[in-house]
Specification:
Blueprint (H helix, E strand, L loop, with lengths): L1 E2 L5 E2 L8 H37 L2 E2 L10 H9 L20 E3 L5 E3 L1
Parallel strand pairs: 3-5
Antiparallel strand pairs: 1-2, 4-5
């Protein structure tokens, strides 16, 4: 058997096709599935982005060096308990959104 990603395998039963053709067809199927998933993710992100823009909420981005306290700052401003600061590299690399109300009563999303 030829190993492929996840549970996909190709057996030696090729029904007249070479193993190389079978492998190429299987990889094409996997590639098509990944492309469909990426297209769906793009559509979802575009829809979410459009909703954020139309809401009129101010957006704030927090960037900085590793272990600079970005997570602690967002947690302090938003009161979110979902974020847990950790002393490890790349512990919080995923993008998250949190809402908060600043002192001047401007509603914003970080």
């Amino acid at each position: 058997m030829l190993p492929l990603p996840n549970d996909a395998t190709i057996t030696r039963k090729t029904h007249g096709k070479s193993l190389k053709e079978v492998a190429r067809n299987r990889l094409h199927q996997i590639s098509a599935r990944v492309n469909r998933a990426v297209t769906q993710a793009r559509a979802t992100r575009n829809l979410n982005r459009k909703a954020r823009v139309e809401s009129g909420v101010i957006q704030i981005g927090v960037v900085g060096y590793t272990n600079a306290g970005k997570t602690s700052l967002i947690r302090a401003l938003s009161g979110s308990t979902r974020l847990q600061p950790r002393n490890s590299l790349f512990a919080t690399v995923e993008t998250t959104a949190h809402t908060c109300r600043l002192k001047n009563f401007i509603h914003s999303t970080m």
